[in-house]
UniProtKB/TrEMBL annotation:
Source organism of the structure: Rhizophagus irregularis
Name of the protein described by the UniProt record: ATP synthase F0 subunit 9
GO biological process: proton motive force-driven ATP synthesis
Any one Gene Ontology cellular component term annotated for this protein: proton-transporting ATP synthase complex
Gene Ontology terms, MF aspect: proton transmembrane transporter activity
InterPro entries: ATP_synth_F0_csu, ATP_synth_F0_csu_sf, F/V-ATP_Csub_sf
Recorded family membership: Belongs to the ATPase C chain family.
């Protein structure tokens, strides 16, 4: 049960990566790209934390 919850949580955390993909397509400045990339890395970190955290 706990393993299933971890996988579901990681899947939900990766929804943030979709926002990063949209942001890359609408980049107007270097700052915008940096903020988008930071959000994507944060979402990826949360997914890994949910999967492999204790």
């Amino acid at each position: 049960m706990l393993a299933a919850a971890k996988i579901i949580g990681a899947g939900l955390a990766t929804i943030g990566l979709a926002g990063a993909g949209v942001g890359v397509g609408i980049v107007y400045a270097i700052l915008g790209f940096a903020l988008t990339e930071a959000l994507a890395l944060f979402a990826l970190m949360m997914a890994f934390l949910l999967l492999y955290g204790t």
